[in-house]
Design brief:
Number of strands: 7
Radius of gyration: 21 Å
Oligomer: single chain
Strand order of the largest sheet: 3-4-7-5-6
Helix content: 40-55%
Largest sheet: 5 strands, mixed
Strand content: 5-15%
Order of helices and strands: HEHHEHHHEEHEHEEHHHHHHHH
């Protein structure tokens, strides 16, 4: 998957809500940051609304700089700017992912932020359990999301590969945006309403060596949250392969600002199956095994590309609808409302906020 693909992935507006939940910033400062990240305040009132992963990454970075707290108020004491950089400098010298995970655990035990990470080995699996005085409701979802997400992304960055996750357990109720967790965690099996918060790996996968250099680390720590959030390595899932085929179709690249002269139609199931050297029914079955369908992926790609074009280009809504294969603006607007709960114009309101 190319860089533009990961940038244009969209996630639920609820991830924005959880990031804002415990901030001590004044409302006008929060509003200014949202505008800087091209997120309209109006979107916060619509539960189906979505933002691109690049917008979310920008938001987390700006909130961190404004609060000078890398955990955004979700720990007992402030996590000062540079805390993640200190951890990364320790991890870069680890032998493999097992030692890196052990160092992450030790680091948070020493930091005393009101939570610990406990490692438990069970047969051929190792479980990283997040322990602390948390609520099991939405108000503390951020620390679970953020903690497991960055723990995994750090290991992926160190190994220069997508480290497989055996499973993730969350102690809170299944949120309305639960499908986005599979997106954020590269399709890992996820369960909610569990007795513990834990992320489980196969011990054999943790034998991967650290494959980054000190020079690469220096580049990472210049903007670590953004770089880890949009970290992108090739995924082996069939859903990811289909997404890549659809995103790489002619005319569906975000960096192509100018309109193509012809209406662009996305690849069909038969065409994608041919690219992947599978029979169409075999591809459908493999997508079903991952809880997906070709039509759902196709709509997700259109939705996410539409959000990216609305936020980051000056293209008219009419041109965007044509770019995505709609013959007219009205069916595009109806589809977009079904996908996000708001009209496409709502994503342009940040310019006038």
């Amino acid at each position: 998957m190319q860089n533009q693909s990961i940038h244009s992935i969209s996630i639920s507006i609820d991830f924005v809500h959880t990031a804002l939940e415990k901030l001590t910033l004044a409302q006008d400062e929060i509003d200014q940051i949202l505008q800087q990240c091209r997120i309209s305040k109006a979107l916060l009132q619509h539960p189906q609304a979505r933002v691109s992963l690049s917008q979310y990454a920008h938001l987390i970075t700006e909130l961190t700089l404004a609060t000078r707290d890398e955990l955004l108020g979700h720990s007992q004491t402030i996590s000062p700017l540079g805390s993640l950089a200190v951890l990364m400098h320790w991890l870069i010298s680890a032998k493999d992912m097992m030692q890196a995970l052990q160092r992450i655990t030790k680091y948070y035990q020493m930091m005393g932020k009101g939570f610990d990470i406990s490692l438990q080995i069970k047969d051929d699996k190792i479980c990283a359990e997040l322990i602390g005085s948390f609520q099991t409701e939405a108000e503390d979802a951020f620390i679970f999301e953020f903690g497991f997400f960055f723990m995994h992304r750090i290991l992926c960055w160190l190994s220069r590969d997508i480290l497989p996750i055996a499973s993730i357990d969350f102690p809170f109720r299944t949120p309305s945006y639960a499908l986005d967790y599979r997106l954020m965690f590269y399709g890992a099996p996820i369960r909610f309403e569990q007795n513990v918060a834990q992320m489980t790996f196969s011990t054999s996968d943790l034998t991967l060596p650290v494959s980054q250099s000190m020079a690469q680390l220096q580049q990472l720590v210049k903007d670590p949250f953004t770089q880890l959030l949009i970290l992108n390595f090739q995924s082996s899932s069939w859903s990811a392969k289909v997404t890549e085929c659809l995103q790489n179709a002619d005319g569906l690249h975000v960096d192509h600002v100018e309109m193509n002269q012809e209406v662009n139609q996305m690849a069909t199931l038969v065409e994608v199956a041919e690219i992947l050297q599978l029979a169409p029914y075999t591809l459908q079955r493999r997508l079903q095994d991952e809880g997906q369908s070709f039509l759902a992926i196709k709509n997700q790609v259109k939705r996410d590309m539409a959000i990216e074009l609305l936020v980051n280009t000056m293209m008219s809504i009419e041109d965007i609808s044509l770019q995505l294969g709609f013959a007219e603006t009205s069916p595009f607007t109806r589809s977009f409302k079904l996908w996000t709960g708001v009209a496409p114009s709502a994503y342009r309101k940040h310019k006038n906020s």
